[in-house]
Amino acid sequence: MDETGASYGVNKNGVPYKVLIVDDSIFVQKQLRQILLAEGFEVIETATDGAEGVEKYRQLKDKIDVVTMDITMPNMDGITALTKIIEINPNVKVVMISALGREDLVKKALMAGAKNYIVKPLDRKKVLERLASIF
Fold it and tell me: Which of 1, 68, 121, 133 would you call most buried, defined as having the most Cβ atoms within 10 angstroms of its Cβ?
């Protein structure tokens, strides 16, 4: 909850923000899902690489409020997937997830249109603050 006692995962009308998680690590997917669900977010779908993430976003775009996107993944990296999702919806909110020490890739992702970023290992408070900052 934020300083007003409101849940991070719910908009001012009490409706949960809907999330697509794109990460090749099942562990990170589960960790992120737990953090988000505990704060009232609704995890709509998960994907294990950028190509799958783009396809799931294309199918569910009207139901997704935010995408969390790992930068380094097989088949299609997160920055390529980010640019493809932005082509589908220029107003999309994407928060990148990066391993420590990859500031070059984070900067590239932000320049490509990501709204914010989270560094692994995931810290619950930072995840929630970074997501809250984009709404």
Answer: 68
